[in-house]
Amino acid sequence: MDYAKESLRLHAHLKGKLSVVSKVPVKTRHDLSVAYTPGVAAVSSALGNDRAKAFDMSIKANTVAVVSDGSAVLGLGNIGPYGALPVMEGKAVLFKEFGGVDAFPICVDTQDAAQIIDFVRKLSPAFGGVNLEDIAAPKCFQVESGLQDLGIPVFHDDQHGTAIVVLAALINAARVCGKRISDMRIVISGAGAAGIAVAKLIVSFEKPKDIVLCDSKGAISSDRSDLNPYKTELLKFTNIMGFAGSLKQALVEADVFIGVSAQGIISAEDVARMKPKPIVFAMANPIPEIFPEEAQKGGAYVVGTGRSDYPNQINNVLAFPGIFRGALDIRAPRITEKMKLAAAKAIAECVPNPTAEKIMPLPFDRVVHEKVALAVKSAS
Predict the structure, then answer these.
(1) Dihedral pair phi/psi, residue 214, rounded to 5°
(2) Mapping DSSP to helix (H, G, I), strand (E, B) and coil, where does residue 366 land?
(3) Measured by CB atoms within 10 angstroms of the end CB, which terminus of the chain is less buried, N or C?
């Protein structure tokens, strides 16, 4: 099937994927008087006097803003807020479908971090949480950290959603291979938002033997003078062997390859130089760093991608609906490290007997999202 052509047809026919549905009938004068004026004045007064009551009497209790500036959309790059809009709509659909969360796409026509922070602050009264999406690094770090005092969860899914599902996949892949994460040498291709978050969460869960991140210029190492502060900070807990070289060189004798970067950058020959039973997570979308067939030619023991047409899809949809469901249910002021780790473990546990062909649950399994929500609530 030509998914691009089918998607264009669907969106043109429906004029987007979302609509607003009223929870209350407005068919009589009584209905109108209770839902709107004069009755609503009492609700307005209650919320004006005590803003916390917004969680009890308004959509704030179950509504998330999906915010993007369009600076890093899927594999398309900086295509702006209009280009981001269909993706944010889709994200809102997934929130509702898998988490029962009402979400709305907010695409802002600025790519200035301070302006995005200010904008989100100003719209926050109407929302119980904020999902930041497709905002380029390093700006995304500034935006997320600048909003952590809002009193509602602000979660950059490209960072933490990705990290959570990758950790879940790694937990089960390690079981399949009969290895411990603490004995592994892990190579990550991509030192932006996703790569940095993945590295941090893995180390938070179980510190590997070594973990090396590579950007387009090679390994993040102490001999480089072109690193931004976020990449420099990585050297506190990564690349403890001081490796300096290319991605392909880094893969020699590595146990794990995690790709959150660009299409077609490694080959079967590169995989063949890894340690026995190598794990390959090639998650660039829509075209991965290496296709599963090619990775298996090189001897890959467990292969995962971000695509839905291959086994072992490692996709954020397994994480964010349940995470926000749990956070909203307990009115969490933020998403903590404990919550992220609990979510990753919950996803991994949804596959009690993992195999090389199945290390991840399917997103259509409602139990997954329920377990993630429960794990987040318990971790708080």
Answers:
(1) -125, 140
(2) helix
(3) N
Q: Which residue has the tokens 């429906």?
A: 14
Question: Which residues carry out catalysis?
Answer: 36, 91
- Mean per-residue pLDDT, 122-150: 96
* pLDDT, the chain, mean: 96
What is the β-pairing status of strands 279-282 and 154-156? unpaired
What confidence tens digit (pLDDT) does each residue in 275-296 have?
A: 999 999 999 988 999 999 999 9
Whether 380 shows a pLDDT value over 90: the answer reads no
Same domain, 70 and 195: no
Domain boundary among 119, 152, 185: 152
| Whether 123 and 200 share a structural domain | no
Q: Beta strands 129-132 and 210-215: pairing type?
A: unpaired
pTM of the model: 0.95
Give the separation between CA 19 and CA 30, rounded to whole angstroms. Answer: 25
pLDDT per residue as tens digits for the range 245-258: 999 999 999 999 99
C-beta atoms surrounding 97 within 10 Å: 15
Q: Please indicate, yes or no, whether residues 260 and 359 belong to a single structural domain of this protein.
A: yes
In 3-state terms, what secondary structure has residue 254? coil
